[in-house]
Each structure stands twice: as C-alpha cells, then as structure tokens.
Amino acid sequence: MHARAGIIATSFIGLLAIGALTGCSGDANAAGADSRKTELVFATPPGTDDPDEQAIMADLATMVGEASGRTITNLQPADYLGVVEAVRNGSVDVAVLSQFSAALAYKTDSVDPLLVWPASTEPASFCLAKKDSGIQSPADVKGKQVAFIDPGSTTGYFMPKSLLAKAGLTDGTDYKSTFAGSHDSAVLALANGNVDVACTARQLYPTFVQKGVIKEDEITIIAKSDPIPVGISIVVRKDLDNDAREALKAKLPALITANEKISKTFGISGEPAKDPEFSTYAPLVDVAESIGVDLQDLR
Fold first, then answer.
1. Mind listing the pLDDT tens digit for each residue in 7-19?
2. Same fold yes or no, 12-120+229-298 and 125-224
3. Are 245 and 85 in contact (CB under 8 A)?
4. What's the pTM?
5. Residues of 122-140 as b/e, b for ≥16 C-beta within 10 angstroms?
6. C-alpha to C-alpha distance for 41 and 58, rounded to whole angstroms
7. CB neighbour list of residue 45: distance below 8 Å, 6 or more residues apart
8. Is the dihedral of CA 215, 182, 43, 12 positive or negative?
9. Are the C-beta atoms of residues 189 and 147 closer than 8 Å to each other?
10. CA 132 to chain centroid
11. Fewer CB under 10 Å: which end of the chain, C or N?
12. 12-120+229-298 has CATH 2.60.40.1190 classification
C-alpha cells in the first residue's frame, strides 16, 4: 500500500478463528449470514507501528462503517498476502489493498475490486543507505544486503526491486535481500547496521525522520523508483451483499477524499473508478514480470 498499519494486530490464528465461526453449518450458518447484514470485517495490510498511522487506520475503518451503515471490526493480518487470503476465504468482507496485492487478488479471482484510485505522479519508493557507507547510487548496491518489506508490498518490494533491476542488478546474484516484515523494521535494520540498504515507501520517509527512527543527516536517498501505475484499491469478498457494495461505492470516496491525512497516507487524489476491469491492473503485471515475478505464483 502502499504502506499501512491497522488498529488491531491479529495473527493468522485469529483469522482462522473468525473463519471457523462464519463457516459453521446449520443454524450457525444462518446466524452468521444475519450478522453479516449489520457487521463487516475490514482489513488493512501491515505498515508501521506508529500510533499516528494507526489512528489514520481507525479513521478509515470508521468511514467504512459510516459509508456501509454497518458495525465494523478492524483487523490487520500479518502480511500483505494474508489480507488477500482473508478476503478470499471470507474471513474479511472489505479491505484496502496495495496495488500489487490488488492485482494479484484480481488475477487469482480472490476478490472483487470495488474502487481504485488514479495513479500518483510521485516516486513510489526510496532506497536508503548510510552516508558513510559509500553507497550513492543503485550501481553501488552490488554485493550488498538490501532490506525489502514483504513479498506483497508495492512500495517495499515490487517498485524498488524493479528500480534495481533497471540498474542491471539481479536479486540473489548481484545483491542479497531479506524481508523485514514492516517499513519501520527495514529502516531500523539500516539504522542499526544490519543491512546496507533499506527500501521503503516515499511517503513514510518524512515520518521516519520526524519520529527519530533515522537521522536525515546520516542517510542518503540513493534512488527513487518510478510512480506506481495504479492507485490504491478497496476490495470486497466475492459474495458480499449488493447493499453493502453499492453503499460503499456511493459514499466512501467522498469521505476519504475529505480526510487530508488519509488521502496523503494512501496517495489518493481524484475520483476512483468503480468496479474496475482487470485491464486497470495490467501495468502492474508488466512490472512484476520485469523482475521475474509471476503474480499467480504468489498464492
């Protein structure tokens, strides 16, 4: 997501528990169906542990509830692809997905994209190194250790890996990589000297500086990625009722656009497309293929 944090950090076990409750038979099934008329489970992908960002996610969850007219339970699966799986298996009703996660979910017929915002013109990602490391450009990353975020992260994996690929560098051959699990963990790994380079979302860089996670006078932005060709998506489970779908499409965009913090965090501008076709996400598939990743293989 772009880079996100939810209010409640839930384990995959927690998601399985929800799935078990909604997957019971007989009268329990009927009760579960009835509860879905008044309640929705909303999920956000992992991002940072910053309280300010968590508050932004709380606001977004409130908006989903206001738009849909339902009571909201907010969850945060452990990783980006966990969000896709939770929507696919019915544990989650509505989710905000990063661009590549949305493309994967759509390609594998796991979700129904409801809203997708236009692409931003800003660089998606920054790759960072310490100023005293001698690393000043992508070419200097050869032979180094790079921290990415998560295999499903747009700003923390796909876009920066594409950046390095354009510089002629192949992961595993020209440099070694690791997944830090979150944006702040990757940047901390750099600050603590555990990796040589950390790649993170552009919009999070100022926050890391302001919060003292990194010292700007000690860090160099060695490269900036291309903009992401598609914006952020709101998706729903495939069998979500039509009333909820139509209410979200009608009311959620205006609520989000009116909130400056949410719009800035997700890089949202302009009006979203509703019920987008897969062709909207085709440029993301091209980027994935350029770095040797088949989105189908990420399931």
1. 222 222 233 333 3
2. yes
3. no
4. 0.75
5. ebbbbbbbbeebebeebeb
6. 13
7. 1, 4, 6, 76, 77, 79, 80, 83, 95, 96, 97, 98, 101, 152, 153
8. negative
9. yes
10. 31
11. C
12. no
